[in-house]
Design brief:
This protein is an alpha/beta fold. The protein has 12 helices and 8 strands. Strands 1-8-7-6-5-4-3-2 form an 8-stranded parallel β-sheet.
Length: 300
């Protein structure tokens, strides 16, 4: 199996779409399709349904399947689909198999949700999922700063469909070391902490970055990518300065309002309701104006 097209697709702005909710709390399928088309029309070429910005952990299994199906249907022929899967091993395997059967090309494996994660167990968890879908590219989502690069090598030696990494440890030096320990050229390295960390991660080996901000202004994220690809860090940092406050609002208090701020921005543009599910919560009235003001200064 030639995995090079999937590797090329990962080296991009990896959009994490929101999941819009209707007034009754259900997924608003029509609005979801409209937001996806807006991303695709804006130039996005890879999307991750059931990512954290899509409120993965607040969706039911049926809802996650619906999100996958809606995304594959809209993206078909226009973008690569990298489906988020996770929870216990049988649930993650079933989601990966559903992604494959629906027509997705890759899966992103959320970090194992367990209070006790050994490094050997991390390999076992990802191996079980990757072996179940050898036809798909597999991208582990790494948030554990203690995980050794050698563990990724061990996983990929037994599962050649593990082709990239979404690395989300807020430490560019740690990322650079991990990537080199695992093999800088062996995997596609995606900066998993979005635009604020993209320049520092690109400087140490990343070739793509994830984004929730892209839901609001695809052109802003793609402009940063273009600058980073060209090695023009001054231009990339101009974008960084433009979106810094917005991303700081998302990251505040251990990212308590990560999704909330994105949905508030979309609501200010009339693109979807601001509703989020617990344990997230909509912004207080006093903070909504700041989000709207931030977005108003962008080229939307």
């Amino acid at each position: 199996m030639d995995l090079s097209p999937l590797k090329a697709a990962l080296a991009d702005v990896v959009a994490i779409p929101v999941t819009p909710f209707a007034e009754d709390g259900s997924i608003d399928a029509a609005e979801h399709r409209a937001l996806l088309r807006r991303l695709l029309d804006g130039g996005v070429r890879i999307v991750t349904p059931n990512g954290n910005t899509g409120e993965f952990y607040a969706l039911t299994p049926d809802e996650r399947r619906t999100v996958t199906e809606l995304t594959v249907d809209e993206a078909r022929g226009r973008a690569t689909v990298l489906v988020g899967v996770g929870h216990d091993v049988p649930t993650a395997v079933a989601a990966a198999e559903h992604a494959r059967d629906t027509g997705a090309e890759m899966v992103m494996v959320h970090q194992p949700v367990h209070p006790y994660v050994s490094q050997d167990g991390w390999v076992d968890y990802h191996r079980a999922i990757a072996e179940a879908v050898p036809e798909l590219g597999v991208v582990p989502y790494i948030r554990n700063p203690l995980l050794a690069g050698e563990r990724l090598v061990e996983l990929a030696d037994s599962c050649p469909n593990v082709i990239g990494v979404k690395y989300a440890v807020p430490d560019a030096a740690r990322f650079g070391a991990f990537a080199r320990d695992a093999g800088l050229d062996r995997f596609v390295w995606v900066a998993g902490l979005a635009e604020l960390y993209a320049p520092s991660y690109f400087a140490t080996g990343a070739t793509g970055f994830t984004s929730g901000l892209v839901n609001i202004a695809p052109g802003v994220s793609l402009t940063m990518l273009e600058a980073l690809r060209a090695g023009d860090y001054a231009a990339a940092m101009k974008v960084w300065e433009q979106i810094r406050r917005f991303e700081e609002l998302r990251a505040d208090r251990q990212s308590a309002n990560n999704v909330t701020v994105v949905k508030e921005a979309l609501a200010s543009l009339g693109l979807c309701r601001r509703d989020v599910r617990a344990p997230s919560r909509i912004l207080p009235e006093a903070q909504r104006a700041e989000v709207a003001n931030q977005v108003a200064g962008w080229s939307i």
